[in-house]
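Dear Dr. L.,

I hope this message finds you well. Following up on our conversation about the binding site, I have prepared a predicted three-dimensional model of the protein together with iron/sulfur cluster. For your records, I am including the exact sequence and ligand specification that went into the calculation, followed by the structure tokens. Please feel free to forward this to your student if that is useful.
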Amino acid sequence: MKVVTSLNQTKLFDLSSCTLCPRECGVNRVEGQLGFCKEPAILYAARAAKLYYEEPCISGKEGSGAVFFDGCSLGCIFCQNHDISLGMRGKSRGRAITPSRLSDIFLSLEAQGCNNINLVTAGHYLPLVIPALESAKARGLAIPIVYNTAAYEKAEAIRALEGLVDIYLPDLKYKDSAIAAAYSKAPDYYERATAAIEEMVRQCPKPLFADGSSSLDAEDDRDDPLMLRGVIVRHLCMPGHVEDSKAILSYLHRTYGNRIFISIMNQYTPMPQAQKDPLLSRTLTEEEYNEVVDYAVEIGVENGFLQEGGTVSKSYIPDFDGTGL
Ligand code: SF4
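The resulting structure of the complex is given below.
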């Protein structure tokens, strides 16, 4: 007999009337209709390869096995991965793959020595990604699974990942609904993302590193042990929105303290498609970033990652050329 939760998940995962994410488009992706994420019920990915630009405890020396999926249910106008995040709307270079092929890709990344499997923006594909994960695990996949998301997801969709994902890597982008509406057409972003993060922390309530500890040496990140389990919330500081950044940090620290890590990022890169907005057409200033970091220190954030100079570059955008697919 089915229990209520699995019935709910069946409805949640029915791509013939898609309500998988908070957009609740209701389109029939199985028949090729496209909703906001602009992806049908076929997996499209743009790259599956080692990635070295994540936090040191994720990338390590051997790299994180990142699989970049096409499309996105948030669709920020400043997105660095614009070529693929627009899905069928943009210059998508994705390739169609089956869940069975995706399962093989996971195992291949593990065989290449990757420290983990890093699912980049997979939320709109969960009904196809979950079977691929289950199949790969049944065939021996043993490295941690990282779920890398803009966090505009339903908490019940995240609940379906329990036992499959080891490390959650969500963004928490904005608190102010006007900013979320202007930049991502998602005025309810903060409510949705914080509910999703709450579910992630419920599943992974405490960090665990390969040396058995739950914290990192604050002075030296060169030999950070790899993270095995936990939640790292990323916040990309936006030009002109220091107060919103402070509100995000205040919420995260007040709610979770040292049970999560917070990654405070300065790498906002003005992309051509965002040039019309005067704030989005410039980089973050050093003063803005320092003000946010000083605030984090002031309120007592200890488990944090900072970025130091030189990270604002389009060279950090990988080639979405089908590598590894
Ligand atoms: S996953 Fe895509 S089609 Fe489904 S509700 Fe979200 S944006 Fe719409």
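In brief: The first helix runs from residue 4 to 12.

With kind regards,
A. P.
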